[in-house]
Amino acid sequence: MRQVETTVHHLLRNGMEMLVPKSPYHSVIYGAFQERATFISHVHTAKLAGQDGDQALAKICGVIAADEKRHEAGYTRICAKLFEVDPDGMVRALAYVMRCKVTMPGLLMSDGRDSSETLFERFSAVAERVGVYTARDYGDLVEHFVRRWRVAELAGLSGEGLRAQEYVCGLPPKIRRMQVLAHQRAARSELRPVSFSRQSGCSYPPL
């Protein structure tokens, strides 16, 4: 637990490198994406924990996932209403958020040890490998909101709004193609074990 506390304190010191919103629209769109992403990752972690026989961890992750789902629902409804009131402004805001990328709050987390790659990079690589959160999940997430907010059906848009609509609606297949290429690169690369200081010598599936 000491290493976990160390990581938390380093993250508090480092701060968060997330989207810099230029309007309230950006903030609520980011919130919807971030909350759904954490919901998905906790659901998958709960499933993996249960398969490994750790029912306590599975229950904890399930409770967190349910909480994240409620947060997602709130942001999603706010965005849906804003799309009704100002479709042009919202689709342009959505394109802005997608271009800036939806980075997670833990991006700058650190265990205080020097490494050629960041702790978050190692964590993300393991998460992808074991199926906690993958590029496919991200593609599904983008497609979910495009469909939920009926982005493809928006009408009366400005020229910039139409370009934003085309860009956003074309993202899911692009992300899935990137996922295929990433898997191909991973299959050709040398696998190596990954360890985390908080786990007292335990290692994770090779990357």
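The record above closes out task 2.4. Task 2.5 opens with a second protein, given below.
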Amino acid sequence: MEQRNLELSMSPNSKDHKWTEHICYTLIMILNLSTWIDLNSVWIELPLIVNTAPERWTLPSTLSLIISLANIFPIIVLFIRWRLRERFSEIPYIYIIIIVGIIACCAIGLFWNHTLYIFGAQRSYLLLIAVFALGILDCTSSLVFCDYMKRFKAKYLHAMFMGESLTASLPTLIATAQGIGGEVQCIQKNQTLPFEPIYSEPRFSVTIFFFLITGIILMSLVAFMILQMTSIVKLAKAGDTNFEKENIENCEMLLKYGENTPVVRKLSLTTPKSMTRKHFHILQWFNVINSGILYGCLPTLITYSLLPYGQKAFYYCSILYPVAYPLSAFYALLRPTISLLWVVIGSIVGCLICCFIIVVACQSPCPIWADTVHGGIVMVIAWFSAAFILAYVRIASGNSIKLFWKKENGLFYFGLSVQMGIIFGVLPFYLIINVFELLQDRQPCHVYCR
């Protein structure tokens, strides 16, 4: 009887603990919405922005270069971390990233279509300046947000990846509500004049879109303040104070199953060998290569690889492509880590698909299957598949580093490898597109591929 009363008295505490865990998980997800949601929103709005921007088709490559140049700030943070060592704290940088992100997003909403004559041409100077500021913040977030997760248990790392994945999905949902917009209709005013492109209007403007994104980033600031200024982390027992003493494989089971890991399975676990330095470096180099192709090369070629198949292909890819990341994050719930062999296989398959997209972009304005429905479907599937495979490889690699790499700086350098890849991926294609002008764009209402 006393035992039963004891169980009943402990039951509410157990439920309260479970609720605090869920709240902590949700707060970490909301916090990580501020990592890349602003720049992802710029890419998602490109079908509308590119039609009025003076840069036209060169705008994606210009934005990619600006974001790459912003990587100078993460290098500075890396130097500061090296100098301060144990005294380094990522907390102030997170506050700066979120607050300045709110200001820059508001600036894009207000001034995205303002132009100025600079260096012999009209340029969207305020848009470019704001994107540069966001590039500094988001590139740095790859380092400091990953580093922040060392404070939490392994199972909360997935909340970070889930939040990152939603940075593309939420703007996609807003863009879907916004309407296709940018869809071109060719109108001929009379028989002597050529066809002129007329673009349909979205349900609400680019300005309102970015104000909504600003509201989401503001929620991230509130979530971070709750994590830092309340006792929610302590109540949820989410802090990683005893991580080094825990069984590593048990952490992997908790990452996958949470607190519902079977007792028999817990008792049968044996501690595996920790990750070797060679294994760690291989994961980091594959992260550099995958990030360079997926986040560096491809964004510069999005217009060249998709617009030859029509404005709808461009739009639907802008909508479906960001969904690949959250789907890969959901799959990572079922299989949080993979072996090094599968990291290599996944990287090769994903990079081969990316190479196909690059080849198609280089054939613009008349690539294979141009102006056909099946060609557009193939290209959208290719973009989606490449993003899903390489994003999952990245998540699984990050989980492996968190679980098996003994040093606490593993996730910091994991974030740094992403930024290194972006730099190496963007620069060559910026030169190809903007300097040497080797790629030819496709003008609307002109006939190609006869």
